[in-house]
Specification:
The chain contains 18 helices and 2 strands. The protein is mainly α and 435 residues long.
């Protein structure tokens, strides 16, 4: 049941957005509750390994949540605000982060590590296709659906977060195809679904997501044979050329990036090597020194503008923002979580397909997109990251088990060499098996 419900979390809101003083509630925020109930019971399936690799992430996640909560609860004592709005805003953001984080962790625990995971591949592919089809048919505008009065333009999906989320899903599906994962039937449909996902992906108009997907795909090409690289490159270039000539919005974004207005760049002091970077480099230089103004506690989770001393719009860099809001301890914990996921992807999973290629490609996309925007505070972008990690996170923690065996072997070996215990070994009968 949770596998059937999972793609519903990626449906467009279709007018069900609910603006609040603390942000906008989307359709996924209403559907996540039933999903949590379904996946909780799914995670308790019999025969599951007692320890999974995802369990190694839990201490880092819990310590980060604890540290971010302390930093946020101290807001009223550290800043003289007339109301507690910054405090409640930060706590609600922490709640949303925890909600989607728990959903992702439970999904990983509910996923078996054997051949029965085929349903997960179909569910994840359907999630990406749902977003791709909706974006492609509507061009990310409600006007195409005629749901609102003429002349009023509203987005079906938020541009940048959706582009970030799709970059992760596209890299995972493409990596699974190139690695030969999934059933042959799934790979046939995934080839078609990947084209649909790409055509919808460019409609989200999120340049950070495009760059992240490119980084993940380049990683894939560097780790597969030349024949697959050549075929995939031809298909990818053909799709880009087609989109550039057929979709004006995509063409405008590409031209704006590669051939920006020089007057605009000089006026706002933005751009790198003559390219329009959206002011990312200028913001980075302005915000990095502010880490040392409050290096331990930071400013409080999602505390921006006001008395915080940092930009109201954020630094457009998730990792830098974590250092600014939760201090050096919080920033290091976030980097540690990504690093542990990266290491897990390199560990072989006995009895199942090669997961290193798709999972690491998705992690590269997630890391690059995190450098250009703050997309992992919660929502489907964070959820997509955990879904891409799920195939390796759901496998048994063989490294921990191997460590215990090594410790036992070391203890046994030391006992063998101890003269004081020598007599205890030679008193056994000759036919006694005491291995």
């Amino acid at each position: 049941m949770w596998l059937f419900w999972l793609p519903l979390l990626f449906l467009p809101s279709l007018g069900y957005e609910q603006p609040t003083p603390f942000g906008t509630l989307t359709l996924a925020d209403f559907l996540i509750g039933p999903y949590l109930i379904l996946v909780y019971f799914g995670s308790r399936h019999p025969g599951a390994p007692r320890k999974k690799r995802v369990d190694a992430l839990l201490p880092l996640l819990l310590v980060f949540l604890w540290w971010a909560t302390i930093s946020t609860l101290l807001l009223p004592l550290r800043y003289d605000y007339a109301t507690h709005h910054p405090l409640w805003f930060g706590l609600l953001k922490l709640g949303k982060l925890s909600l989607y984080g728990v959903a992702g962790i439970l999904t990983i625990k509910a996923l078996p590590h054997d051949e029965k995971r085929g349903g997960f591949y179909w569910s994840l592919l359907m999630a990406g296709v749902v977003v791709g089809v909706t974006l492609f048919l509507t061009q990310n505008s409600y006007d195409e659906l005629r749901l609102l009065e003429p002349g009023k333009s509203t987005q079906v999906y938020q541009e940048n977060p959706t582009s970030a989320m799709m970059s992760i899903l596209i890299c995972f599906v493409a990596g699974s195809l190139l690695a030969g994962n999934g059933t042959s039937r799934w790979r046939r449909y995934a080839s078609i679904g990947l084209v649909v996902m790409f055509l919808g992906f460019i409609m989200a108009e999120g340049r950070g997501g495009w760059l992240a997907a490119l980084a993940g795909v380049l990683y894939l090409f560097a780790h597969v044979n030349l024949r697959r690289t050549f075929v995939a490159s031809i298909v990818g270039v053909a799709l880009v050329i087609f989109a550039y000539n057929q979709f004006p919005n995509f063409k405008e974004q590409v031209d704006r990036t590669l051939q920006p207005d020089v007057t605009y760049l000089k006026k706002y002091q933005v751009g790198v090597f003559g390219l329009d970077d959206g002011g990312r480099w200028a913001i980075l230089k302005a915000e990095v020194p502010k880490i040392f103004d409050s290096p331990i506690l930071g400013r409080g989770f999602f505390h921006r503008g006001g008395y915080s001393g940092i930009f109201l719009t954020g630094s457009h860099n998730f990792f830098l923002q974590m250092f600014l809001e939760t201090g050096i301890p919080g920033g290091v914990l976030i980097l540690g979580i990504f690093w542990r996921m990266w290491l897990h992807a390199a560990e072989p999973v006995p009895g199942v397909e090669n997961q290193k290629l798709p999972v690491r490609a998705a992690l590269i996309a997630a890391f690059v997109v995190g450098l250009s925007g703050e997309y992992f505070y919660g929502g489907t972008t964070l959820f997509a990251l955990l879904l891409a990690y799920a195939p390796v996170g759901s496998s048994p923690d063989t490294m921990r088990a191997a460590g215990r065996l090594s410790l036992l072997a070391l203890r046994y070996g030391s006992r063998q060499r101890d003269p004081a215990t020598l007599h205890t070994r030679i008193e056994y009968p000759a036919n006694h098996n005491h291995s």
